[in-house]
Structures are given as C-alpha cells and as structure tokens.
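Troubleshooting: if your tokenizer reports a length mismatch, compare your output against this known-good record of 482 residues.
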Amino acid sequence: MRRIGLLAAVVAACLSVPALAEEPDRTVSGEIVGADNQSYKAIPFDVPEGVERITVRLTYDRQNKTVIDLGVFDPQRFRGWSGGTRDRFTLSESDASPGYLPGALPAGRWHVQFGVPNARPDSRSAYRLDIFFDRGEARNATAAIADPPVKAAPGWYRGDLHMHDAHSDGGCASQSGKRVPCPLYRTVEAAAGRGLDFIAVTDHNTVSHFGGLRELQPAFDRILLIPGTEITTFHGHANIFGPARWVDFRVGTPGVPTIGAVEAAVQKAGAILSINHPSHPSGEICMGCGWTWPDTDWSKVSAIEVVNGFNAEGPLSGLGYWYARLNEGKRLAGIGGSDNHDATAGPDKAPIGRPTTVVHARELSQAGIVDGIRAGNVFIDVEGTRDRLLEVTASSDKATAAMGESLRAAGVVRVQARVQGVTAGTLRLIVRGEERERRELGSGEAEFALPRGAACGWISVNVASSEGRLLLIGNPVYVTCK
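Known-good structure output:
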C-alpha cells in the first residue's frame, strides 16, 4: 500500500506545495489514467483498533484537467461524499466534515471512493492519499484537519466561554413568535455581531453541536468557534473547552465512579476544565448548579467561572469562591461567561458577550486560547465592552511577572496596572482576597508598592466605576517569599 518515493515527489512538484508538516499514518499513491474517465475507483486502507478520528487528505496532479471526486466507506457502510469540493475531510464519533457522517470508527478495511468525472485520453495524473489517525496520545488526525489561526499574532482576544443553543436548552422566537429550540447559527451570528474574537459553545453533556461548528467556521472567518461541553452533575456544573471526544458525565455509574474520573477523562480528551457558577444554590431551582464535590482534584481544574451573566457581585458571584481557592494555594484562572440561552436576548437577559473574558494568547486559535486561559494572563470585562483593557505586572528587584505568572519577592514588590476604556473610577489592589489599597484612575496607569512580607501569596488588581460597580476583574500574580 505504500508507494511514496518518486511518485509522491511528482505529485508535490506538480502541485507546487510545500512539504507537509504532519507524518501520515497511512499513505496510498497511484495514478489516474485516461481509461479511468467517468469511472469509480475504491482505494483501500486499514484502520487499526482504538482510532478516535480519521482525517484523509488528497493531493493530485490537476494540470491536465483531471478531476477526482472524493468520498469514503467504512467496512459496513457509506460515510460521506464531498465530490470535488474538498481535498480533505475528517470523521470522529462526535463530528465530521460537512458531507460526512460522524459515528463509531470500526477497525478493518475502509476505502476512499474516487469518482473520476474527467480524465483526458492518454493522460496520467499522479495522486497521493495521506491518512491520519487520532489514537492513544497521538493527535495526528486533529492536527491534519486544524484550521489556520484566525489571527496569527499575539495579543488580547475577547470572547464568551459559556452559551447554549438548540443542541441543549437554548431557545428563541420562531418566525411566528413561538418559543423554539434556537439554531446554532443564530448563536454564532449574534457573537459575530458583538465583535467577539472567540466563543465556546457549551451545550449540556453533548457533542452534537461540534459538527455544526465545523460547518460554520469557514463562513465566520473573523471569529474563532471553540467546541465545548457543559458537564452537568448532581453536585456541580463545569465547562470543558476543546475536547476531542465526548466525556461521560454520569458520576456514580460503573464507568464514572467519582468526579475524579470525569476530571481524568477531560484531560485525556485534550480539554481543560472550568467550574461553572460555583456559588449558585443547588436544589429544585437549579439542580446541582453550585459546586459541592468534596473530592475535587483541583490540580486537574484550570479555571473558575467568576462571573456568570450579570452576577459579578453579590451572593451569586463566584468571586469569593475563587478567592478562597486561591488562598488554599490553588492556581486557577478567573474567567466569565454569559451562560446565554437565547441568542436573540436583549441587554436585560445576559446577552452573548456579557461578560467578556479577555485572554492574552500567542494567536487566535483553539490551542492559543486554551493555552492562554491555562496560563492565566486573563481579565474579565464585566460589562462586555469592546475596548476596555487591564494589564497588570508585578516586579521585585529585576524579576517581573504578568497575571498568571509567579514572582519571587526579593524585596519590595511593585505592582503596575494600566487601564484603557474606563474614564473614571478606581483601581483596587487585592492581596490574598482582601482589598489593600485604592487609587483613582487618573491617567489610566498606577503603581502600588508592597513590603515583601505583605505581598506573599497572590496579588491582583480590579477596576471599579465611580459608583463602585466592578468593571474589570484581574487575575493573580503569584508571589513566593521563600
């Protein structure tokens, strides 16, 4: 099945493409000749046990007007067709490229189906199929189908990390005004209209929306669409961002005996976990909404949803819960999410983008945003504006650390804060969860100084309006004094 040498080089030369970065798990090469005109060709390949995603990529010589249509069959059934529209496709149990069917990936003999609507007499066109698998820890298929970054530059990117649509309990008005399940595209359309850089769609316990996000992403090429899931258990809800597969949420069943089993499965799925609205009450009003799992392994949690919708302050705010975990020595990014359930909601019903989580990331890609959240150089724009900015660094001697980073205190710790988009209000220095000092915004920049001993643990900066409302919530700089 492997004929890569000279023939592969011919394909690459004819197509004038750079060398491919990923190493395929299978490669099949051949030729389409004039006699193949208006015929079908089955190109077999074998899939081993344990494959979780398959990506197929086709390259061929088009210079002589040869055309190859593309599809695939698994050992039992038809799995999709894209004709000449695509040169690659992907399938997994959770999602697939448009035109292809998600579902189990049985081991055995598969075949790529070629249709050849045109091959000129006496022509010869070299082709190559590269086939990639996600299997075990390897994520070759995911890498091979990954979109390029929406933006390739580092910077601050604004997004909403919690929302629902028709794939769970999101609803909106139909043409006649009835309340109906709200289509996914309305959620994406509303987010794009808000000027967001990214969103995570987090339907409850399911991954059925993943295929829709894959379909919509090319049309919404200025906003990054991150697949997510809200895992709802009887003792707490949590979002996972960027999972490669469905994660079983049924804590207490044989396959998921503890919440720790869920946390381990999230890691194996390549995702990060964030505790949602941890201070909400639980019971008949909102079953399991508050986080009450006593055996949580906090080393497997990356973030806490500090602001859910309008709840930045008061008993439903997650701020105190987050601060308490930080004081226990946990390192957790504070984020926010609208928890929107109606893409058409007005400003009085937590619209998409309020609050906004602003992440400093190396690029606007799924990996960039997920890594940025994990790193913690993040702030929450409580009102979901488009232009407010909070940058915080701490320094001691010659060492400097940004939000989410660690600083070893060698003496006085100086905290520098820069704010944009807020014309009046106060900067509030937070030390281990308690407000230490306030400064009027003034020029938008301020510096606080703390004796070495007073700064130990963690420090952060928040911004409040002149009336005292929280506007921006900063993440901590972790200060060690040993």
